[in-house]
Amino acid sequence: MRFCLYALILLFTGGYKLSAQSIDLEKIQWIHGSDPCSENKDPGLQVIRYDASTYIIRQNKCLNYEAPFIYLFIGMEKALLVDTGAKAPDAAFPLFETISKILKEDRSEPIPLMVIHTHGHSDHNAGDHQFTNKQNVRVIPAQKDSIFDFFKLKDWPYTQMTFDLGSRELIIIPIPGHDEQSIALYDSHTKWLLTGDTIYPGRLYVRNAKAFRESIARLNTFSKNHRIDYLMGNHIEMTRTNGIDYPTGTTYQPNEHALPLGLDTLEELHRACEKMGNTVVYEVHDDFIVVPK
User: Fold this and answer.
1) How far is Cα 238 from Cα 228, in angstroms, rounded to an integer?
2) Cα-Cα-Cα-Cα dihedral sign, residues 89, 95, 98, 100
3) Do β-strands 183-187 and 192-196 pair in parallel, antiparallel, or remain unpaired?
4) Which of 44, 75, 121, 142 yields a CA-CA distance of 20 to 30 A from 87?
Protein backbone atom coordinates (compact mmCIF):
# COMPACT_ATOMS: atom_id res chain seq x y z
CA MET A 1 0.00 0.00 0.00
CA ARG A 2 1.27 3.45 -0.90
CA PHE A 3 -0.10 4.90 2.30
CA CYS A 4 0.35 3.54 5.79
CA LEU A 5 -2.84 3.62 7.82
CA TYR A 6 -0.95 4.49 10.96
CA ALA A 7 1.02 7.44 9.64
CA LEU A 8 -0.17 10.98 9.23
CA ILE A 9 0.40 12.30 5.75
CA LEU A 10 -0.79 15.68 4.56
CA LEU A 11 -0.78 16.44 0.86
CA PHE A 12 -1.73 19.81 -0.55
CA THR A 13 -2.50 19.45 -4.24
CA GLY A 14 -5.28 20.29 -6.64
CA GLY A 15 -7.21 22.30 -4.05
CA TYR A 16 -7.67 19.56 -1.49
CA LYS A 17 -6.02 18.21 1.64
CA LEU A 18 -5.64 14.46 2.05
CA SER A 19 -5.15 12.93 5.48
CA ALA A 20 -4.19 9.24 5.65
CA GLN A 21 -4.23 7.95 9.20
CA SER A 22 -5.84 5.78 11.80
CA ILE A 23 -8.30 8.24 13.29
CA ASP A 24 -10.71 8.88 16.10
CA LEU A 25 -13.79 10.27 14.34
CA GLU A 26 -14.80 12.27 17.39
CA LYS A 27 -11.50 14.15 17.48
CA ILE A 28 -11.03 15.11 13.83
CA GLN A 29 -10.15 18.78 13.33
CA TRP A 30 -12.35 19.71 10.38
CA ILE A 31 -11.74 22.83 8.34
CA HIS A 32 -14.36 25.17 9.77
CA GLY A 33 -14.08 28.49 7.95
CA SER A 34 -12.51 31.83 8.87
CA ASP A 35 -13.47 35.29 10.08
CA PRO A 36 -13.23 36.98 7.68
CA CYS A 37 -13.37 34.50 4.80
CA SER A 38 -11.13 36.79 2.77
CA GLU A 39 -8.27 35.53 4.95
CA ASN A 40 -9.17 31.84 4.64
CA LYS A 41 -6.28 29.71 3.42
CA ASP A 42 -7.88 26.27 3.74
CA PRO A 43 -8.26 24.08 0.65
CA GLY A 44 -11.63 23.93 -1.09
CA LEU A 45 -12.24 20.48 0.30
CA GLN A 46 -10.77 18.38 3.09
CA VAL A 47 -10.35 14.64 2.59
CA ILE A 48 -10.09 12.31 5.57
CA ARG A 49 -9.03 8.75 4.81
CA TYR A 50 -10.76 6.72 7.49
CA ASP A 51 -9.32 3.48 6.15
CA ALA A 52 -8.10 2.07 2.85
CA SER A 53 -11.59 2.03 1.34
CA THR A 54 -13.53 4.76 3.18
CA TYR A 55 -13.22 8.54 2.83
CA ILE A 56 -15.02 11.53 4.30
CA ILE A 57 -14.87 14.88 2.51
CA ARG A 58 -15.87 18.27 3.84
CA GLN A 59 -16.46 21.36 1.73
CA ASN A 60 -14.86 24.62 2.82
CA LYS A 61 -17.33 26.85 4.70
CA CYS A 62 -15.87 29.90 2.98
CA LEU A 63 -16.91 28.42 -0.37
CA ASN A 64 -20.41 27.68 0.91
CA TYR A 65 -21.62 28.11 4.49
CA GLU A 66 -23.49 24.77 4.31
CA ALA A 67 -20.08 22.98 4.30
CA PRO A 68 -21.69 19.58 3.64
CA PHE A 69 -19.97 16.26 4.19
CA ILE A 70 -19.54 13.79 1.33
CA TYR A 71 -18.75 10.09 1.66
CA LEU A 72 -16.85 7.68 -0.59
CA PHE A 73 -17.14 3.91 -0.12
CA ILE A 74 -14.93 1.63 -2.19
CA GLY A 75 -15.64 -2.06 -2.75
CA MET A 76 -13.83 -4.73 -4.75
CA GLU A 77 -16.00 -4.16 -7.84
CA LYS A 78 -17.31 -0.59 -7.66
CA ALA A 79 -17.22 2.62 -5.65
CA LEU A 80 -20.09 4.71 -4.31
CA LEU A 81 -19.97 8.48 -3.81
CA VAL A 82 -22.72 9.80 -1.57
CA ASP A 83 -23.56 13.45 -2.42
CA THR A 84 -21.57 16.01 -4.41
CA GLY A 85 -21.65 19.13 -2.26
CA ALA A 86 -23.05 22.66 -2.40
CA LYS A 87 -22.62 25.29 -5.10
CA ALA A 88 -19.02 26.47 -5.51
CA PRO A 89 -16.63 27.22 -8.40
CA ASP A 90 -15.22 24.01 -9.87
CA ALA A 91 -11.66 25.33 -9.74
CA ALA A 92 -11.94 25.88 -5.99
CA PHE A 93 -13.91 22.69 -5.36
CA PRO A 94 -12.38 20.00 -7.66
CA LEU A 95 -14.48 17.09 -6.41
CA PHE A 96 -14.32 14.92 -9.52
CA GLU A 97 -10.57 15.37 -9.80
CA THR A 98 -10.15 14.49 -6.13
CA ILE A 99 -12.29 11.34 -6.32
CA SER A 100 -10.51 10.23 -9.50
CA LYS A 101 -7.12 10.50 -7.80
CA ILE A 102 -8.32 8.49 -4.82
CA LEU A 103 -9.71 5.71 -7.02
CA LYS A 104 -6.48 5.46 -9.02
CA GLU A 105 -4.35 4.83 -5.94
CA ASP A 106 -2.95 1.28 -5.87
CA ARG A 107 -5.31 0.07 -8.61
CA SER A 108 -4.08 -1.21 -11.94
CA GLU A 109 -7.63 -1.29 -13.36
CA PRO A 110 -10.32 1.39 -12.92
CA ILE A 111 -13.55 0.51 -11.13
CA PRO A 112 -16.99 1.96 -11.86
CA LEU A 113 -18.14 4.91 -9.75
CA MET A 114 -21.79 5.35 -8.80
CA VAL A 115 -22.92 8.78 -7.56
CA ILE A 116 -26.04 8.95 -5.40
CA HIS A 117 -27.56 11.42 -2.93
CA THR A 118 -28.91 11.28 0.60
CA HIS A 119 -31.73 13.57 -0.57
CA GLY A 120 -32.61 16.08 -3.26
CA HIS A 121 -31.63 19.47 -1.81
CA SER A 122 -29.21 21.58 -3.83
CA ASP A 123 -26.48 21.70 -1.20
CA HIS A 124 -25.96 17.98 -1.79
CA ASN A 125 -26.07 17.69 -5.56
CA ALA A 126 -24.55 20.92 -6.89
CA GLY A 127 -21.39 19.10 -7.96
CA ASP A 128 -23.19 16.51 -10.09
CA HIS A 129 -22.17 18.26 -13.31
CA GLN A 130 -18.51 17.50 -12.58
CA PHE A 131 -19.30 13.78 -12.94
CA THR A 132 -21.73 13.96 -15.86
CA ASN A 133 -20.58 12.21 -19.07
CA LYS A 134 -17.38 11.02 -17.43
CA GLN A 135 -16.07 7.58 -18.38
CA ASN A 136 -16.94 4.77 -15.96
CA VAL A 137 -19.19 7.06 -13.91
CA ARG A 138 -22.96 6.84 -13.42
CA VAL A 139 -24.84 9.65 -11.70
CA ILE A 140 -28.22 8.73 -10.21
CA PRO A 141 -30.37 11.90 -10.17
CA ALA A 142 -31.58 13.10 -6.78
CA GLN A 143 -35.18 12.12 -7.51
CA LYS A 144 -37.32 9.51 -5.79
CA ASP A 145 -38.15 7.62 -9.00
CA SER A 146 -34.47 7.44 -9.97
CA ILE A 147 -33.49 6.12 -6.54
CA PHE A 148 -36.44 3.71 -6.60
CA ASP A 149 -35.40 2.29 -9.99
CA PHE A 150 -31.66 2.15 -9.34
CA PHE A 151 -31.89 0.30 -6.05
CA LYS A 152 -34.97 -1.69 -7.14
CA LEU A 153 -36.84 -0.61 -4.04
CA LYS A 154 -40.39 -1.84 -3.62
CA ASP A 155 -43.26 -0.36 -1.61
CA TRP A 156 -41.49 2.93 -0.85
CA PRO A 157 -40.72 3.83 1.91
CA TYR A 158 -41.38 0.62 3.81
CA THR A 159 -38.78 -1.69 2.26
CA GLN A 160 -35.00 -1.59 2.19
CA MET A 161 -32.46 -2.91 -0.30
CA THR A 162 -28.93 -4.31 -0.09
CA PHE A 163 -26.42 -2.87 -2.57
CA ASP A 164 -23.16 -4.78 -3.03
CA LEU A 165 -19.97 -2.93 -4.00
CA GLY A 166 -18.04 -6.18 -4.10
CA SER A 167 -17.30 -7.73 -0.69
CA ARG A 168 -18.89 -4.65 0.86
CA GLU A 169 -22.64 -4.43 1.35
CA LEU A 170 -24.64 -1.27 1.94
CA ILE A 171 -28.26 -1.30 3.08
CA ILE A 172 -30.43 1.44 1.58
CA ILE A 173 -33.27 2.62 3.85
CA PRO A 174 -35.88 5.15 2.65
CA ILE A 175 -36.43 7.84 5.31
CA PRO A 176 -38.70 10.59 3.91
CA GLY A 177 -39.72 13.47 6.15
CA HIS A 178 -36.92 15.97 5.78
CA ASP A 179 -37.20 15.48 2.03
CA GLU A 180 -39.50 13.20 0.03
CA GLN A 181 -36.58 11.18 -1.37
CA SER A 182 -34.34 11.04 1.71
CA ILE A 183 -32.47 7.78 2.26
CA ALA A 184 -30.17 6.39 4.93
CA LEU A 185 -27.29 4.03 4.14
CA TYR A 186 -25.85 1.41 6.47
CA ASP A 187 -22.27 0.36 5.69
CA SER A 188 -21.49 -3.16 6.84
CA HIS A 189 -17.75 -2.45 6.80
CA THR A 190 -17.50 0.64 9.04
CA LYS A 191 -20.79 -0.02 10.89
CA TRP A 192 -21.83 3.55 10.08
CA LEU A 193 -25.40 4.61 9.48
CA LEU A 194 -25.42 7.59 7.10
CA THR A 195 -28.43 9.72 7.97
CA GLY A 196 -28.05 12.75 5.67
CA ASP A 197 -29.97 15.78 6.89
CA THR A 198 -32.40 13.62 8.86
CA ILE A 199 -30.10 13.21 11.88
CA TYR A 200 -26.94 15.24 12.40
CA PRO A 201 -25.57 17.70 14.99
CA GLY A 202 -27.69 20.62 13.86
CA ARG A 203 -31.17 21.81 12.95
CA LEU A 204 -33.38 18.93 11.82
CA TYR A 205 -35.87 20.53 9.44
CA VAL A 206 -39.07 18.49 9.27
CA ARG A 207 -41.24 19.04 6.20
CA ASN A 208 -43.59 16.07 6.65
CA ALA A 209 -44.17 15.28 10.33
CA LYS A 210 -45.86 11.90 9.88
CA ALA A 211 -43.28 10.65 7.39
CA PHE A 212 -40.41 11.90 9.57
CA ARG A 213 -41.76 10.23 12.70
CA GLU A 214 -42.24 6.93 10.85
CA SER A 215 -38.76 7.15 9.33
CA ILE A 216 -37.11 7.71 12.71
CA ALA A 217 -39.09 4.78 14.10
CA ARG A 218 -37.82 2.54 11.28
CA LEU A 219 -34.23 3.62 11.89
CA ASN A 220 -34.64 2.97 15.59
CA THR A 221 -35.96 -0.53 14.86
CA PHE A 222 -33.11 -1.11 12.39
CA SER A 223 -30.60 -0.15 15.07
CA LYS A 224 -31.88 -2.91 17.35
CA ASN A 225 -30.93 -5.54 14.77
CA HIS A 226 -27.64 -4.17 13.44
CA ARG A 227 -24.43 -3.04 15.06
CA ILE A 228 -24.12 0.72 14.54
CA ASP A 229 -20.98 2.45 15.77
CA TYR A 230 -21.90 5.95 14.60
CA LEU A 231 -24.62 7.99 12.96
CA MET A 232 -22.91 10.05 10.24
CA GLY A 233 -24.77 13.11 8.96
CA ASN A 234 -24.28 15.80 6.31
CA HIS A 235 -23.59 18.95 8.36
CA ILE A 236 -22.37 20.35 11.65
CA GLU A 237 -24.44 23.26 12.97
CA MET A 238 -24.27 22.70 16.73
CA THR A 239 -21.52 24.06 18.95
CA ARG A 240 -19.82 21.99 21.64
CA THR A 241 -22.09 23.72 24.16
CA ASN A 242 -25.21 21.63 24.70
CA GLY A 243 -28.27 22.99 22.92
CA ILE A 244 -26.50 25.93 21.25
CA ASP A 245 -26.24 26.11 17.46
CA TYR A 246 -24.45 28.42 15.06
CA PRO A 247 -26.81 30.81 13.19
CA THR A 248 -27.73 29.95 9.61
CA GLY A 249 -25.13 31.39 7.25
CA THR A 250 -22.22 31.11 9.70
CA THR A 251 -18.88 30.77 7.90
CA TYR A 252 -16.65 30.37 10.97
CA GLN A 253 -17.26 27.61 13.50
CA PRO A 254 -14.19 27.27 15.76
CA ASN A 255 -16.10 25.45 18.50
CA GLU A 256 -18.27 23.13 16.47
CA HIS A 257 -19.75 19.82 17.59
CA ALA A 258 -18.15 16.52 16.54
CA LEU A 259 -19.61 15.01 13.35
CA PRO A 260 -20.48 11.47 14.53
CA LEU A 261 -23.41 10.83 16.82
CA GLY A 262 -24.17 7.79 18.96
CA LEU A 263 -27.24 5.57 19.06
CA ASP A 264 -28.41 7.40 22.16
CA THR A 265 -29.09 10.38 19.88
CA LEU A 266 -31.30 8.27 17.62
CA GLU A 267 -33.19 6.94 20.63
CA GLU A 268 -33.63 10.46 21.99
CA LEU A 269 -34.97 11.72 18.66
CA HIS A 270 -37.28 8.70 18.41
CA ARG A 271 -38.78 9.46 21.81
CA ALA A 272 -39.20 13.12 20.89
CA CYS A 273 -40.96 12.27 17.62
CA GLU A 274 -43.30 9.79 19.26
CA LYS A 275 -44.20 12.39 21.87
CA MET A 276 -44.87 15.04 19.20
CA GLY A 277 -46.94 12.70 17.05
CA ASN A 278 -47.87 14.20 13.70
CA THR A 279 -47.44 17.82 14.78
CA VAL A 280 -43.81 18.92 14.96
CA VAL A 281 -42.84 21.68 17.37
CA TYR A 282 -39.54 23.53 17.75
CA GLU A 283 -37.60 21.61 20.37
CA VAL A 284 -34.00 22.04 21.53
CA HIS A 285 -31.91 19.03 22.56
CA ASP A 286 -28.24 18.85 23.54
CA ASP A 287 -27.02 17.59 20.15
CA PHE A 288 -29.78 18.65 17.74
CA ILE A 289 -32.76 20.95 17.33
CA VAL A 290 -36.06 19.83 15.81
CA VAL A 291 -37.46 22.53 13.51
CA PRO A 292 -40.83 22.41 11.75
CA LYS A 293 -40.49 23.59 8.15
Assistant:
1) 22
2) negative
3) antiparallel
4) 75
